[in-house]
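Entry 14. Structure prediction run on the chain below.
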Amino acid sequence: MRPSGVRLRMTMPTLTNRIEYPCARYHVLCRGNRGAVVFRADDDVGVFQKTISEAVGRMDWKIHAYVLMSTHDHLLLETPSANLVDGMKWL
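Output returned:
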């Protein structure tokens, strides 16, 4: 039996089970396809920061740290609600 607030989710495309916990911290890594550059200009970074800010507001996430590199990004985030999958789908 899972503790209250814990959800078991099927995610795509891997169809693996992901257990989400309230107040969990995650290291999230997002890469470009085949190592492609995703941040070509300062405008790209601005759009990314605006989009992440909106996701934080919608999902009530807390961003503890992030790193943007030309081909990928890293986020260290906390989910007060068990909603990592929902937030990543929105992104």
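Residues 26 and 77 are 5 Å apart (CA to CA).
Filed with the rest of this week's runs.
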